[in-house]
Amino acid sequence: xxxxxxxxxxxxxxxxxxxxxxxxxxxxxxxxxxxxxxxxxxxxxxxxxxxxxxxxxxxxxxxxxxxxxxxxxxxxxxxxxxxxxxxxxxxxxxxxxxxxxxxxxxxxxxxxxxxxxxxxxxxxxxxxxxxxxxxxxxxxxxxxxxxxxxxxxxxxxxxxx
Length: 161
Fold this sequence. Notes:
The chain has four helices and two strands. A two-stranded antiparallel ribbon has the order 1-2. A hairpin with a 2-residue loop joins strand 1 and strand 2. The longest helix is centred in the middle third of the chain and has 76 residues. It is mostly helical.
């Protein structure tokens, strides 16, 4: 990105931020919260500068201790996060292979079931033909005599009706 484009981008971001800040400060609650936070920062930074000025060595040691403590906490959190990530990755990987296996078993069962259903259907037809050999021909004749249905109303196929 060229310098001119970067400058325009930065200018746009700054102007947008200022406009957003101005609009948010129109609300009295937001304005009071912002002023309260600035007072807190002012008070705390004043105390910090006073401590550093009066006891620079002690202030340095306190800051150093706090930084080392925060660093230890962050390292611990990072280790926990890494362990969690690895555990999730192992679990997802194991479950993915389980799902693939279940999918394949389901597809195999479905294919086997299709064959079984065709076999059962054939047997039922054979049994029906044995009991009523003319069932197929009378079925079509009965369907021709049934009235047609369109939506919720019956349409007569007999022109005399």
